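[agent] plan:
  1. take the single chain provided in the ticket
  2. run structure prediction with default settings
  3. attach C-alpha cells to the ticket
  4. add a short note for the reviewer (M.T.)
[agent] executing step 1
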Amino acid sequence: MTAEALTEMPAETRDAAEIVRQFLEASMAPDPERAATFMAGDVEITFTGGRLFEHPRDATAFNANRYTWVKKRMDRFDVAPGDEETVVYSVGTLYGQWPDGTPFEGNRYIDRFVVRDGKIVKMDVWNDSAERILTMRGIDA
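[agent] step 2 finished; step 3 output follows
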C-alpha cells in the first residue's frame, strides 16, 4: 500500500499497519527488545516449519543460525479490519547472506499479523528459505 493509500484508511486500520511496519523495522535492525514493545506479552509467534516462539529474541536467534544477515523488502501491506482486531499481511522478499557467505535475494515471504488494542497478538511467518537451502544442497525433490 502506498503512503497515499494509508492516509485514506480509517485511523485504526492505518495504525495497525504502522505498528507492523515499525515492528518489522526493529526486527531487521535487529533490535528484538524494541520489536517486543509492539507485541502483547502473550503474543503467539509461529515461524516456518511450525516453530513456536514467545519473544522476538527467539526469532532473532533462529535467524542468526539460518543467515549471516537477512533483511526484508516490504513490497506492500494488505490490511483487513475486523470488529475487535485488524489483520495485516506484509508481503515482499528477503535478501541477505547465507552462513557460507553466499548472497541471496528474491526469497519470497508473507508475514501475517493480528493487531488488537494497539499490539501484535499473533504473528505467522512463511518464506522460501527452506526450499532454497534444499536446492543449494542439490535436493530438489
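[agent] step 4 note for reviewer: The mean pLDDT is 91.
[agent] ticket updated
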